[in-house]
Amino acid sequence: MAMDSQVIAPADAEERRRKPPVVVYPNGSLPGADMAMLARARRTLTKRDEIIVPPREAGSFRVPKGHFFRVVSIEGPQVGDLNLWNADDLDERFFSGKTRALHATHVGLGDRLWSNLPHLRPMATITHDTLGWYGFDQDGAGVHDVIGTRCDPYTHRLLGDGGDYHHCCHSNLARALGKARGLPAREVEHHVHDVLNVFMCTGFTRDTQQYFMKASPVRPGDFLEFFAEIDLLGAISACPGGDCGQTHSSDVAVCHPLKVEIYEADPAALAGWHSPTRSPYGRSHGEQG
Ligand SMILES: [Zn+2]
User: Fold this and answer.
1) How many angstroms is it from 223 CA to the middle of ligand 1?
2) Which terminus of the chain is more solvent-facing, meaning fewer CB atoms within 10 Å of its CB: N or C?
3) Is residue 31 part of a domain?
4) Could you tell me which Pfam families the record lists for this protein (predicted)?
5) How far apart are CA 35 and CA 208, in angstroms?
6) Is 217 within the bounds of a domain?
7) Residue 3 banded pLDDT, cuts 50, 70, 90
8) How many whole angstroms from 231 Cα to the centroid of ligand 1?
């Protein structure tokens, strides 16, 4: 939001600016996961499956509820754009905006990935993050943001030279979802949604509050681990921006593959855990009958 020099500030402008910030959704009021139980469960993991996602492509994977999955950096720094759906109902999907409002601009240990309205339940809980040391740096940047949307060929057209680029994350995710469902990408692309930017390092510029990216601090061996709260279909794109330190939506940046690993925990370690139910709100929205 640019300041308008033609508008005169009122006499009490500074007083108005000094009002204290109030956290919209205080963390203590949010139903949290049983992190002690999940910490015990993750010590019992057995790997059941894995996929390799080639650079500038996406891959899909399924995670049964009660299992864990990891997005793993291999070969070199690489950002991954993650989508999650209810495996039995594509209309229920990850809600980046509400997750940002409930937690923060960037997510980490203990944060949950929430589903869209009218479902609004945790789809996954973050149980380990080897980049948990990063925090917010001197530029105000952090990792794993829920700010960005995903690179896409439409915005590329809008801002670019009019040419098409077919390996943006949006297209990669559409092709991967289409392959999983046996449909052309164009018939499923409306299910592709705003992502969790795994490993991406982003923030807002201090002076103009513009969204910026910088080279990801991720290195091979790093991973972000989730507990699947419901049966999940996931897709992740190895962004054509590579470590997103320079550019995206082109074949210019150096890119690396990503790995997704699926793990099963000892069921005994999850004793007492129940998959969360959808929101109980009745959906009358105040209308009668
Ligand atoms: Zn991308």
Assistant:
1) 18
2) C
3) no
4) DUF1989 (PF09347)
5) 38
6) yes
7) confident
8) 25
Instruction: Tell how far the Cα of 13 is from the centroid of ligand 1, in angstroms.
Output: 41
Question: Based on the structure, what is the number of domains in the chain?
Answer: 1
Q: Where are the alpha helices (DSSP H) in the chain?
A: 13-17, 35-41, 96-102, 153-159, 169-181, 185-188
- Quick check: is 176 in a domain? yes
Range of the domain at 262: 59-266
One-letter amino acid of 224: L
The token pair that represents 16 in the structure block: 């108005």
Do the Cβ atoms of 216 and 51 come closer than 8 Å?
Answer: no
Strand 112-114 to strand 223-228: parallel, antiparallel, or no bridges (unpaired)?
Answer: unpaired
- Residue 16 in any domain: the answer is no
Q: Is 214 exposed, middle or buried (0-12, 13-18, 19+ CB in 10 A)?
A: middle
Residue type, 225: E
Q: Averaged over 190-214, what is the pLDDT?
A: 97
| DSSP codes, 206-242 | TTT--EEEE-----TT-EEEEEESS-EEEEEEE-TTT
| Run of H or E including 127 | strand 122-129
Ligand 1 centroid from CA 253, angstroms:
11
Q: Does the pLDDT at position 125 exceed 70?
A: yes
Query: 25 alpha carbon to ligand 1 midpoint, in Å?
Result: 29
Tell me the CA–centroid distance for residue 80 and ligand 1, in Å.
7
pTM of the model: 0.95
**Cα–ligand 1 centroid distance for 151 (angstroms):** 4
Q: How far is the CA of 214 from the centre of ligand 1 (A)?
A: 14
Is residue 289's pLDDT more than 70?
no
Distance 152 CA to ligand 1 centre (A): 7
- Does position 115 have pLDDT exceeding 70, yes or no? yes
Least confident piece of the model among 153-167, 212-226, 257-271 = 153-167
The pLDDT of residue 248 is above 80? no
